[in-house]
Write a structure and sequence with these properties.
Layout: H1 11-26, H2 28-41, H3 45-63, H4 67-81, H5 85-112, H6 114-119, H7 125-138, H8 142-157, H9 162-185, H10 190-218, H11 227-236, H12 238-260, H13 263-299, H14 303-330, H15 343-358, H16 360-375, H17 379-403, H18 409-435
Helix pairs in contact: 1-9, 1-13, 2-3, 2-9, 2-10, 2-13, 3-7, 3-12, 3-13, 4-5, 4-8, 4-13, 5-8, 5-10, 5-11, 7-10, 8-10, 9-10, 12-13, 12-17, 13-14, 13-15, 13-16, 13-18, 14-15, 14-16, 15-18, 16-18, 17-18
Length: about 450
């Protein structure tokens, strides 16, 4: 099949070819946090809660630039569908330079303001101290995180989800070894976990950039930064930036409310959110396939292929989410001891995981439609849609904070996660309405 040909008749095979490696690569990122949570959780509740605050801040600082991956995938895939591989890779090079610049600035800001950022969550002094330590060190890995996003987006747009998989597997393995050595071998505590993750992320970034440079030279694409084109890439990403900022605001507000409910609730929420993120990245494999397939099909002018692939991926997303959710709900009493020896945190976490599991069918539906619209370049609507979702979610989550902590951390974390599941339902309703329309299916390279 040539790069410019429409999707094969059996589009299911194409979805699987892209989604399976993407799935394995995507779960590596939350596995970083799962490993960190499991290792740090056995150091103490304050350390685990501190990781919750720091990881929420760190993921937000890097995650608001996810357009570096999503926007790049769409642009590269459209050029590929139109038969212009050189322009496709050149667009990716622009994204790389943009990621490097944004990463350097963001890292400096997070490192300097690590303590005020941590304190903003309103956690206890012991938790703030742990969070500040982790965040200040982890800031060094932000440039690599953004470069990984950008280069991964290029490779996905070129229909290559295998290379990011290899980088993720190697990086994840290195992260485990380094964390164990630094935390338990050298007794560096939460700082050791941060250093292990930074080193692993940096190695992944270097490896992926090397692959991109090889592809660029093979297609005679320019390597030097072009200020005008880099700025154009930044402007193109603004709608997705707005979308992501609104999404991260939702996650930050949720963590802020969790912190107001006590250290036990915050610690349980940290692990529950990490598990949720793991499941989200797993289901997001279909969204990655949706981005690549939608962008290429629209670049080739094939709207029918978009509709057919979207229908298949929605069904797979819902059933896949249901299956994953049932597994997590069934393991709700098995998972908590892996992350903490604290009985109170274990009980609260187990209850939260049941709610997490029950919401996964909705999550599968949401992630697929999000991927389709991102692949279509429908960034402006996605931005406004997420802002509306955020505004609709605020009354739910602020009501949880207004109620305050009860006599049961288990009850508090369940109520918190029921509210968060409400956010996903609101998001699903809006995305479903948009997907039924046709005006987002603009064809050709742009």
């Amino acid at each position: 099949m040539s790069p410019t040909s429409p999707l094969p008749t059996d589009h299911r095979r194409e979805i699987v070819r892209l989604a399976v490696p993407a799935f394995l690569a995507l779960i590596a990122e939350p596995l970083f946090l799962l490993v960190d949570s499991a290792i740090i959780g056995h150091l103490g509740t304050a350390e685990l809660a501190g990781l919750g605050v720091a990881s929420a801040s760190l993921v937000t600082a890097a995650g608001i630039f996810v357009f570096l991956a999503y926007g790049t995938t769409s642009v590269v895939a459209r050029h590929l569908g139109a038969g212009d591989e050189r322009s496709a890779v050149s667009a990716g090079i622009d994204g790389f330079w943009l990621a490097l610049g944004l990463g350097a600035v963001t890292a400096a800001a997070v490192a300097v303001w690590a303590r005020p950022i941590s304190a903003a969550f309103g956690a206890s002094p012991a938790v703030i101290e742990q969070a500040t330590t982790y965040l200040r060190i982890s800031a060094l890995g932000i440039p690599a995180m953004l470069v990984i996003l950008a280069v991964t987006g290029v490779l996905r747009g070129l229909q290559d989800t295998t290379t990011p998989l290899v980088a993720s597997v190697v990086g994840f393995g290195a992260n485990i070894v380094l964390n164990l050595v630094f935390v338990y071998g050298l007794h560096w505590g939460i700082a050791g976990s941060a250093w292990g993750t930074v080193i692993a992320q940096t190695g992944m970034g270097v490896a992926l950039v090397t692959v991109l440079l090889v592809k660029a030279r093979a297609r005679h694409a320019r390597l030097r930064p072009h200020p005008a084109r880099v700025l154009a890439a930044a402007r193109t990403g603004i709608p997705l930036l707005v979308r992501t900022v609104a999404l991260r605001a939702i996650l930050i507000v949720t963590t802020w409310v969790a912190a107001s409910l006590g250290d036990v609730t915050l610690a349980a929420h940290q692990v529950a959110m990490t598990v949720w993120s793991f499941l989200a990245f797993a289901l997001d494999a279909l969204a990655i396939a949706a981005q690549a397939i939608t962008g290429r099909a629209l670049g080739a002018g094939d709207r029918t292929a978009v509709r057919e692939a979207m229908g298949t991926m929605i069904r797979w997303g819902v059933w896949g989410g249901l299956a994953l959710g049932l597994v997590i709900a069934g393991l709700h009493s098995v998972v908590p001891p892996l992350f903490t020896p604290d009985p109170a945190v274990q009980e609260a976490l187990g209850a939260a995981l049941v709610v997490v599991g029950l919401g996964q069918a909705v999550a599968g539906y949401v992630f697929v439609l999000d991927g389709v619209l991102i692949g279509a370049g429908d960034g402006r609507w996605l931005a406004w849609g997420m802002v509306v979702t955020f505004v609709a979610y605020l009354p739910l989550i602020l009501a949880v904070r207004a109620a305050g902590p009860s006599s049961s951390a288990t009850r508090d974390v369940v109520v918190l996660w029921l509210a968060f599941t409400g956010f996903m339902v609101i998001r699903g309703v809006l995305l479903g309405w948009r997907a039924r329309r046709d005006d987002w299916m603009v064809v050709g390279a742009r």
